[in-house]
Write a structure and sequence with these properties.
Blueprint: E1 7-12, E2 18-22, H1 25-30, H2 34-44, E3 54-57, E4 72-77, E5 81-86, H3 90-96, E6 101-105, E7 112-116, E8 120-124, H4 133-142, H5 146-151, E9 153-156, H6 160-163, E10 170-171, E11 174-175, H7 180-188, E12 191-196, H8 207-238, H9 242-249, E13 253-255, E14 265-268, E15 271-272, H10 276-285, H11 291-304, H12 308-324, H13 337-345, H14 355-361, H15 365-382, H16 389-399, H17 411-422
Parallel strand pairs: 1-6, 7-12
Antiparallel strand pairs: 1-2, 3-4, 3-6, 4-5, 7-8, 9-10, 9-12, 10-11, 13-14, 14-15
Helix pairs in contact: 2-16, 8-17, 10-12, 12-14, 12-15, 14-15
The chain binds iron/sulfur cluster.
Amino acid sequence: MTGWQGKLLRINLGSGLIETELLAEDLLESYPGGCALARKLAQLENISTENNKIIIAAGALNGTGAPAAAFCGIAGYVDDVVCVSLPLHFGAEIKFCGYDVLIIEGKADGWSYILIDEDVKILPIEELADLNPLEIESIIRSAFDQWRASETKIISIGDAEKFSPLLGLVTDGFVVNYTAKLASVFAEKHLKAIALRGIFDLKLARPSEFNQLITEAIKDFRDKQKNFEEKFYNIFQKVNIPLFSRIYANEAEKIACFGCPIACLRKKKEKFLPDFIAIYCLNRMMGINSIQEALSLYDFCTQEGIDPVALGLSARILIELGRSGKFETPPLRAGDKKHILHLLKDKDSLLHKKANLLAKEYEMESEFKELEDSLKRIEKIIFSDIDGYDNKIKVIDALGFCPYILYLFPYELLIEMYQAATGKLLKE
Ligand code: SF4
């Protein structure tokens, strides 16, 4: 097989059984990767509350060096199958470990983490269960020399006892939006982290054609880069989050996901700055207008591994509850960062209830739905200039590309890259 590794790694945390299985070529042709493949496997594996599994599927072009082909899909079951695209390096590293898919099933007796490098191991980590994701990453990496430590890619969760259900997944220091449900599946399995370091190459079907396509794409990118950056900022002005431009105008280190020439992520003093959706949650949902306060709350989220979307939804429901007059003293006022931090540290506070349950309990379901819809509208606005975005994004996701790539390269070019890498025509 070319482009893919053609293998699935199955790890049972309960029995300790670790098996490698072959992936059918037919399946990969129809569901090349990312959430498309993870969802299909969730269906084939019949995952449910009783038979929950974590399914991580690399995008078809992860690890090939195709520009911005960095996203993999991670799925689990919480009321239904949920799947979220994960940025940075994890998808590529799955390929370098020799697999396209990881399936994690069963439940460990005590807190554990999975290490995949030359070997696959399930390692107990019971005494470290309350550590935050940055501490866990640093402990896992401290077992290796500097080079190997930097090559190791990690997904982890924070202290589930203290912060669930607001916890999200953190990958290499970056807290991923919308991952609170998946973090709860990690917690129910007593899985604290997955660490990968791969040593395998990827074979491509037509390597010289593929390299030619990449070279032209990158050359083209250099010509378009300035225009793109202006456009990028304009999009965010369009959705009226002035805080975004102000945070990004700050001097900060540019960070790129695997093979991405755009490098839209930012770090300052070794810590990630909030991305667009996180800023939307801090600014528009929680009402925080000061850059300093937004950044300090986001730092707390990063450090403890709190999903900014889950926090934004819960905080906003509390703010609306205060406005509705259902409480004598409002449980939270818009923009009150100090109070949010105080509620976050008190695990019995209303903020720690799931936003949807809170909304149900206080008859605010329509407000909750409107909040969820507002997040979806943002994505639509960002990509409103892309013709046929709703259909293209499904393909882009299966191939492992970041959606922003659609602003830079013709969709057809991305399909050509897929064909040169795998030697397959893209099925409908
Ligand atoms: S555009 Fe940003 S989020 Fe997308 S792959 Fe590049 S660095 Fe990652």
